[in-house]
Amino acid sequence: MFNRSLRRRTVLAGVMLAALAGVSPSVLAQDISGDLVILQWQTGTDGQMWKDVEAKFMEMHPGVTIKEFQPAGGQGDARGGMRTALMGGEVVDIIINTWPAFRAELVNAGILRPIDDQWASFGWDDKLSQSWRDLGSIDGTTYGITYTYGDRSAIWYKTAQLEKAGVTPPKTWDEFIASFDKLKAAGYPAPVVIPAKYWAHTEWFETLLLRTAGVDVAAQLAAHQIPWTDPKVKAALMKYAEMLQAGCCAPAATMLAIEEPYPTLYTAEESNYMLFGMWTNAALKNDLKLEEGVDYSIFQFPALGMGFDDTSSVDTKELNVTTNGANPAAADAFLDYIVSPEASAIMAGYGYASPSSAADGSLLGPVQQIATGAVSSSKVQFVLGDLLPGDLVDEYRVQLQKFLQNPTEATVDEVLAAIEAKAATAY
Amino acid sequence: MIGRIHWWTVVLVGVIATIWVIPVLGIVVTSLRPPSEVALGWWRLDTFSITFDAWIRVWDEYPLAQAFWFTAMLAALATLGTMLLTPAAAYAFHFLNFPFRRLLLILIINAFVLPQQVVVIPLFTLWRDLKLIDNIAAVLIPYVGMSFAWSIFLVKNFLEDFPKELIEAAKIDGCGPLSTLRHIVLPNATSPIFAVGVLQFLWTWNALLLPMLYLRSMQPLPVLLTKVSGTYESNWDLRSVAAIVTTIVPLIVFVIFQRQFAAGSQTRTGAKE
Amino acid sequence: MSRSLPQMVADPADVSSRDGGGRLRLPATRGWRIKETPAAWLLITPVIILFGISVVYPLFDTLRLSFFDIKGLAPAKWVGFGNYVTLFNDATFRNTLLTTLIFTLGTTVISVSLGWALAMLCAFAPVHTTPFRGMMFVTFGISEAVSGYMWLNILRPDKAGLLNAIIGNFIPGFAHSWLGDPNTALWSLIFVASWSGVGLPLMLCFAAVQSIPRTVLEAAYMDGAKPTSIMRHIMMPLSLPGVRVAIFINLLGALRAFDIIYVMTGGGPVRATETVGYFMYRESMTQFKLGYGAAATVVLLVAVLVISIPAIIQRTAGAK
Q: How close C242 comes to chain A (CA, Å)?
């Protein structure tokens, strides 16, 4: 089994291998061949995007055959199935990952190979700034190369609905709350749709925490340097309660049964706002055939005036390479490819923004441009739920479900105490 | 039944039975109508059109056809394994005498109470260490191994009413135990063996938990079904098609052979009468 | 509930055992079995090996693992009864015990009593209700996962959910998010499990009633007995063996339930539908706490064994 010293040895071996390989990466990159296995867990439109991205790579490197490995299991959160696969001895070259906590878990298990040498030899500094590199690092060692990022503090709406109700996209929290009555009068019973079956109800809390307490407090909470019972955390949850008490939403039971919010908003037209990640863009365009920027758009989370309105919650997706993969050379070349103009252009077509400076920003649609603009002008913090250890994140989501059922101060105290109790054992 | 027919019971049972099949009707209709029409309910007739769009698309978007053949192969192999090994063992347990016979028998036929959750962790670690994860043996072995708990019981029960005279006559004619099995017992025990086969087929076709955990690159239909919804979308039309494809074969088998189950032990008592 | 077709047919306390005395069985004397040890071992060795790998070994290994703390890829650590202590101090687990109890009893009571009642009704018009019995029995042949999807479609909280559309029509404002409300989610699952399970007791009890000799019923009818009293005094008592079998199979199936929970609720909302069988999966296969999951499995196993004591005694005694 992997213990610390073995892990150090693995890391060392990885570094040595990388040093050897790093002699002349450009030559190697042309010589790559064989199978390349990618642990790819996205389905639907995102899965299709990956097929396209992979096809382009194979076209550029005819010797390489990419095989996708799709994990099963893990309703709601793909990590369950990914763990089953990796713990079951599945060997892959590349892992697509969107959870920093999961990256740490994989590093601890000795599965990930550092990519600092590749970073230097491929010259990724030209494409990704230091802050993106930091985002993919653990204690100064780089493991992840970010290929897309998204604004998680953007609220989606259907343009026609707001026009019908005479509402302009609210700038401040008070305007936002005040718009509920107008929207209800216009025939939309639950202005905000919160899909709380698995995890999406935590989004509101997370951006509210950023806007009421700032990125530092959020980072400290993620690392459990402050307890969940901290008054600042409570204040954020009370803001959430304020919104619920203002009649934003359907009954808790409805929220808890909703897995994906698009039908409620865009088909049944019962709701108007949703706080959801940028993958929404692909879903609305491709599945609901709506026109980006015309039929729907986004506005950045309304300002609370508490001094932290320049903050944004973001997510990223990154690629990790494994220590035991059979084809490290091809894996490294794929990392280089993923921040190239070619890959970025394919992803832009699906509505995903690349952090790479080699990407052509003008290929992005209007909504995506609003989002990238908002992120670049904000202090950003990674989605809190994705930073928490696996054990704790389960409890965090379940407790916030409890909060939704009865958003009172007493529940808030109870819920935060329960999360804190779990956090005490989880780190 | 004697006496007059009680029509009110026919009507009552008919109403309940109709309600009973509505969910089945639901996915059939959902699979055949465009999503925009059924967004407000698959039963609504405001606009009504039939489309095979989902039925065509699902094969491209998900490896449904591959999964179908793979499921059929798994079920066939597991069924074959059980049908071959069970009668031999049941015959040995019933007609032959050997050390530990009764102890082994008791052990095997009582294992039917064990929940499948018991095998999950031990076999997972075992397959991992033997590098058998993603090998069809990882599910075939437990499929067949766990089936003995009920299959041997079923066949042996049938053999209890098997004319002993036939066995003795064969012995006098110089038949060894193996040729007695082959020429005397097997030809006359097709009905319980067949029943075992049908049950095993249904059970393995519908299995979800073990293949979900032990198989990777190829997945049988029930596992695929749980994946037929986009990462963040729900695709009800495609889901419905996948559900129908998943269940159609075992359902047909079940309908055809329901007599086998209907009367409980018809296979057994049928031989008696 | 977990589909238990195989057990149904192979169950010891089968309806037919009622007429077990009707025919002379072969005496189980020691003498008549042919002493053929080598041939016997040849025939049963494959069975012993496969059975050993997939039943005996897992049984002991689960027990062994339950005494270790194993997290992911870290080395196993002996903790004695530590996992069990943690388990019973874990409010989540204690809650799953209660959930399991409600789910198991609820499914069994509803499906068996409904199936029994329907069988009695059908007995009054056996021919004319044949297609209807078939329709209800067919749902028993649909796998749990597929049944789950069918019902997700009916129970959807939005406008496309049939149940709410119907209820909303008759009682405005009573439309409900059945699977989203922790108070109704478990009962929704119980209902769905009963929906798919009712065919079994229906058929078992109906078969039992059908095999009542015509002469008995005719005599009762000639004596002027009312249909209701025929039902109460003849049919109901004589179908009890069928009921007993159905209850047992339902209990076993519900205790091990997994598929339907996985498909319909994933244990939620707020863990309201997490049974021991599902908890075990979540802890061991998504969180990779193998030892902890094994301990939960042992608890499940104990429950199963307790319920099965009568059946085990009967089988053991009958194993000649």
A: 37
Residues A95 and A233 in one domain: no
Interface test with B, best of A38, A287, A352 (most B CBs within 10 A): A287
> Which C residues in the span 138-157 are in contact with A, Cβ-Cβ below 8 Å?
156-157
Which residues 52-111 on chain A approach chain B with CB closer than 8 angstroms?
A: 69-73, 75, 78, 84-85, 87-90
Q: Do A331 and A220 share a domain, yes or no?
A: no
Residue C270 to residue A270, Cβ atoms within 8 A: no
The domains located in chain B, with CATH, are 1-51 (no CATH), 64-272 (1.10.3720.10)
pLDDT tens-place string over residues C177-220:
888 888 899 999 999 999 988 988 898 888 888 888 878 878 88
Chain A residues in contact with C288 by the CB 8 A cut-off are 83, 87
What pLDDT is stored for residue A415 in this prediction? 95
Q: Which chains are adjacent to chain C, needing at least 3 Cβ pairs under 8 Å?
A: A, B
In a domain, C17, yes or no: no
C307 lies in a domain? no
pLDDT 10s digits, A301-316: 999 999 999 999 998 9
Say if residue A339 is in the same domain as residue A419: no
Beta-carbon separation of A263 and C158 below 8 A: yes
Chain A residues with CB under 8 Å of B210 CB are none
- CA dist A247 and A249 (Å) reads 6
Closest Cα partner for A403 from A286, A243, A270, A275?
Answer: A243
Q: Are the beta carbons of C53 and B24 separated by less than 8 Å? A: no
Q: What's the gap in Å between the CA of B95 and the closest CA on chain A?
A: 43
Rounded CA-CA distance A407/A245 in Å is 8
The token duo for C300 is: 């499940």
* CA–CA gap between residue B235 and residue A283 (Å, rounded): 11
Residue C31's pLDDT band, with cuts at 50, 70 and 90, is: low
Residues A368 and A277 in one domain: no
Window 53-112 of C: residues touching A by CB (8 A cutoff) are 72-75
Range of the domain at A421: 154-313+380-426
- Please indicate if any CB of chain C lies within 8 Å of the CB of A419: no
